[in-house]
Design goal:
Elements lengths: L13 H11 L4 E3 L6 H5 L7 H5 L4 H9 L13 H11 L7 H11 L10 H17 L3 H7 L2 E5 L9 H6 L7 E3 L15 H12 L6 H17 L4 E6 L9 H12 L6 H22 L2 E6 L1 E2 L4 H7 L7 E2 L5 H13 L5 E6 L5 H9 L10 E3 L9 H14 L19 H19 L7 H20 L17
Parallel strand pairs: 1-2, 2-3, 4-5, 5-8, 8-9
Antiparallel strand pairs: 6-7
Helix pairs in contact: 1-18, 1-19, 5-7, 10-11, 11-13, 12-13, 16-17, 17-18
Amino acid sequence: MKRFLSEHFLLQTPTAERLYHEFAKEMPINDYHNHLPPAEIANDKHFDTITDIWLKGDHYKWRAMRTHGIDEHFITGSATNEEKFKKWAETVPYTLRNPLYHWTHLELKNPFGINDILHPKTADSIYKECNAQLQKKWSVNTLLSHYKVKTLCTTDDPIDDLQYHHAYRSVDNGIEMRPTFRPDKAMSPENEGYLSYLEQLAQASGLSVGSWEQFLAAIQQRHDFFASQGCVLSDHGLEHLYAVPYTDKEIRQIFNQILGKATLSTEDLWKFKSACLYEFAKMDFEKGWVQQFHLGAIRNTNGRLLAKLGADAGVDSIGDFPMAQQMVAFFDRLDREEKLAKTILYNLNPADNALFATMIGNYQDGKIVGKMQFGSGWWFLDQKDGMEKQMNALSNMGLISHFVGMLTDSRSFLSFSRHEYFRRILCNLFGNDIENGELPNDLPWIGTLIQNICFNNAEQYFGFGKEVSQGNRSKEISI
């Protein structure tokens, strides 16, 4: 019987152990999609308690605690940090076979060196030990260095001034922080406060947004500004892609209706979103950026908690939206016009894995290695079963050797342990195939492929390490 969370955790064969320990373990990290706060990175935030860095904003844990019958007072309410931690400790023993059980103990082990199992009897000692280390040893930047993070890409709205990204570039610690352009709010006139958002866009860009053409010019100005601050990626979180037919005249009229506070029909809303996605995609292509599409989530399903806590409260789910036809219409138009940027597709519904894995093969161009990517299992699928199914689908229907690998997609600075989790699962897949005679016993070559998936492919694909333009700087801040 293997010991829980030993050095060979998740590695089922001697070959898997060698692949992980000799090739994957020490590779640096390119975390090219996360939701970490740039201000906390730039200001090298110190955390007073493990609750602050571990439970605050973590809707994975919130969902588990609610399921275990923990009152909201101890989850997102006014309970003390210690009370919240101890309620989490009560919940952890009941998370067996949920990825939270693995993540929890991986994060206690690395960076805190704690090998104890978290439960009510160990909660007090673990709470005190983590807090002591946070106050004496760990800050945001010491954690990033400890995890060997080379590049991390935050997720930022076009109206953001990126002052913290600019300031952080003056910190010589070998870690790049780059912004990611996420214009979802700009293409969502159905949202309350959209006209107020347009006013903020006008202020940020210094341009009027009184027409469709002016709106695009303002988005282009922000796109250019993001590029000057080191951005090489865009991102969208959508139910599905939008690519219905429309005319320029129709979009001008629809935008005028929006400015006039008219309620759009579903047909007009889809046309507007389709036009926005197309225009944004052309901007990405012109700059050589990578565009990311996180598809398939049905969000904010619980009106009661949405009203009380706002978005990202842990009441989202996997959706069952039609995907294929809109993908084909969107990508085919861009491909025919030779304006299709490098693209990563993330799928949330495992029933669509084969669809996504085959879709990317339709638009590879023979010029850029792995131009179209089937991204790592995300959100509800960034666990062992979800990762294995994504990698198996990619292997069966594409080339996993050119896969750009894992990301945290997290708001926590302890979530970089998910890269270790992914690497162990990856090495186990290859190790088992070698042991079964399904792959040759060529560890130098397969080990190189492992290292590429862990780090090198992303480094090349995104062009990390290149000098960031110093033009269009935002105002200086002290850090």
